[in-house]
Amino acid sequence: MEKMIRSSKLPAFCSGEFADQLLSVMRNQWSDNSQPYPVDIVETRTEKGDVNGYEVIIALAGIPKENIEISVDNDILNISIKKTEREETNTRFYVKSGISRRSVNLRYSLHGVDIGKIVSSFADGMLTVKITLAEESMPRKITIG
After folding, report:
1. At residue 134, does pLDDT exceed 70?
2. Which of 16, 91, 94, 143 is in the most buried spot, having the most CB atoms within 10 Å?
């Protein structure tokens, strides 16, 4: 099973629930321990050490950009990866196939994030989705009146 290493400096409002939820969803989707694509979840922080967002990084070797769809609907981030076809011919046969070609739908709940600031990039077979916490979810000092 995957483990997230987290320092005790996490703000109480977050407690790493978002990352834990991402991991929980992924474990449930791949209960046979055979993740079709390797996934990293990275917690991003400000210079002060406050959590300000997350990055979901998925290794998608052999998957063209056109086969990836990212959408947000009702605070749910959906990442759909469509299966790619293998080209076998009379002169070309797969002896072993280790590159995943499965279709996958990943869904993550996005409570407390700024949906308008979700950005993604795809380079060298790596999909990165950056998720920023909403301003109202960020830690702040409250002055006593």
Report:
1. yes
2. 16
Report pTM: 0.67
More confident residue, 121 or 92: 121
Q: Output the six-digit token pair for 40.
A: 């990293």
pLDDT at 131 over 60: yes
Read out DSSP for 17-52? HHHHHHHHHHHHHTTTS--SS-EEEEEEE-TTS-EE
Domains and CATH numbers, the chain: 17-86+99-137 (2.60.40.790)
For tokens 């909403």, the residue is 134
Q: Flag whether pLDDT at 2 surpasses 50.
A: no
Per-residue burial over 70-104, b if 16 or more Cβ lie within 10 Å, else e, is: beeeeeebebebbebeeeeeeeeeeeeeeebbeeb
CA distances from 73 to 13, 101, 124 (A): 24, 26, 28
Which DSSP symbol is given to 99? Answer: S
First to last CA, the chain: 48
